[in-house]
Give the backbone structure.
Amino acid sequence: MFVTGAATASLLGAALAESSGGAASTLIVLATVSFLLSVSAGGAWAIWRGRGPVDAQVERAETVSKLAHELKNPLMAIRGLASTAVRLFEQMSDDERSEFFRLIDEEAARLQRVAEQSATAMKVDAGALRYDLRDEDLGALVEEVAWATARGEHPIGVETRPGIGVRADRLHLSEAIANLIDNAAKFSPPDAPIEVGLHRGPDGTAVIEIADRGPGIPDERMEEIFRRFARWRPAGYVETPGAGLGLFITRAHVDAHGGKVDVVPREDGGTILRVTLPTQGKGSG
């Protein structure tokens, strides 16, 4: 199913290239990326297959079904956009063509994120992730990730303390922080600020906080949002896209660092997602 859908997108991209020349090369690249990502997602599932016979087979089937559902929407969007462009390319203005390519790029990025998160989640469940822990300046890492993570129209404030060192896998801890910022951006009003902070807790631990001004998370949902393929959405955000894997992956990465993730309601509305990590020495801060 994955290969068929992505291959269709590639063929549509090729058809557009025939009708429009080099201007469609971006579409071919994006459609080809979707094909390769779909294949890689299937490869990641092979890791999952080592989990054991009966119950695991049912669980695998459910996982693949959910993964297929998450990949279906961006693939269908790419296919629809390419198909429309094949038919109407000559009649489109330059602005309309640019908008089509922008939308295809957006859907391809969404497809890539789903495929990568699914592969990571399956590795987590299979115990196949490896963490290369090294001494890191956590303040510098938080600053770097906070400013680099896409957040739409949300303004962001970043406040860190110097001298907080941790033993961390830079790649995976960065992914965990980026997932939290992405979650805050998805589930708060478009122009609402996101606040990222780092300080030292009373017990000497490192505390990273990502605060939003969204609708908040009810107590009975606080554990559910960390499950694999979590489907719950707050009122007003039911149609927000996402595979429901970001917080699942974040918790796994933080656990591997000897830390924990907590959900803390804000008194003035919104949610704080708090990561607590062991530190390397007291330092300053």
